[in-house]
Amino acid sequence: MNKGRVEAFSDGVIAIIITIMVLELKVPQAADLAALLPLVPVFLSYALSFIYCGIYWNNHHHLLQAVKHVDGRVLWANLHLLFWLSLVPFATAWMGENAFSAGPVVLYGIVLLLAAVAYFILTRALIALHGKESVLAIAIGRDRKGVLSLVIYLVALCLAFVNAWIACGLYMLVAIIWLIPDQRIERTLSR
What we know:
Elements: H1 4-23, H2 40-65, H3 72-86, H4 88-97, H5 102-130, H6 135-140, H7 144-160, H8 164-179, H9 183-190
Helix pairs in contact: 1-2, 1-3, 1-4, 2-4, 2-8, 3-5, 4-5, 5-7, 5-8, 7-8
């Protein structure tokens, strides 16, 4: 099957996710700048989630540039990823509205962890379809970056019960690790 529909559908879903998140930023009733202070946690959680959605969109794009076609297994793996990403607005809103309390920070981390697992499954489905000698398989290699991200998420989830801010710092660390699009794929494609 052609990969174009998967790309277009995924782009649309991610765009909707970002739109839903921004709708959670409610305009204050007062006209002074002090009225914005209660929105700081909501805005910070939105900004982090916007960056995460951008990272997933960017890396998803790179991932699909390295493949020629998709099959049913890939379609389901992609939907699995989109399912977890579709929960980001809910987790983001809950975390922001509760000023980064432990419970919402844990849920946010669970959503991020399961989205990362789903992305890993998607890459494995694409590699299985295209073979171990494919451009994608060579580019991904052992996927140390992906495995490191999963480990950091697990550590963050454990620490969220002790200090939610440390967990959020670790979520930001993973975002920083992935902020630059996956250079492995770009380098392999340029060869």
